[in-house]
Amino acid sequence: MKSCPQCKSPYGYSLGNEIYACPECGNEWNPNENTEKDNSKILDANGNELSDGDSVIVIKDLPVKGAPKPIKSGTKVKNIRLTDGDHNIDCKIDGFGSMALKSEFVRKA
């Protein structure tokens, strides 16, 4: 039995061929491979590493639910905060307020 790297359950079991499975979360892994992902690096559309406090520029028009107009391409966003999750940038955009963006739609200014 091996501990699950995803949920830390102690009930991981072998499926054969060096593959283990977790009965609690359904995760499958190979303990011989490096299972830790480096989530500390968030990259922009050009592959540049972003950090808290950076300024970025939106690279395509982004529709906003409940807003009559999109965030236009070329909009500069100052003082970003990086977060975990799908939308990994929190920021404030003039005319829109607090917003969450995906790093793939911005480039470092």
Task: Tell me the number of helical segments per DSSP (H or I, 4 or more residues long).
Answer: 0
- Which structural category fits the helices and strands? mainly beta
Helix content: under 10%
Provide the β-strand percentage band. 25-35%
Strand order of the largest sheet: 1-2-3
| Oligomeric state of the chains present here | single chain
Distance between the termini: 49 Å
Number of strands: 11
List low-pLDDT spans. none
Q: What summary fits the major beta sheet?
A: 3 strands, antiparallel
- How confident overall, as mean pLDDT? 88
Shape: elongated
Listing every helix as H and every strand as E from the N terminus to the C terminus, the arrangement reads EEEEEEEEEEE
What's the Cα radius of gyration? 19 Å
Tag the structure with descriptive keywords.
0% helix; mainly beta
Q: Can you walk through the features of this model?
A:
The structure is a single chain. By secondary structure, the protein is mainly beta. It contains no helices and eleven strands. The chain has a three-stranded antiparallel β-sheet, with no helix packed on it. A three-stranded antiparallel β-sheet has the order 7-6-11, with no helix packed on it. The protein is elongated and about 55 Å long. The mean pLDDT is 88.
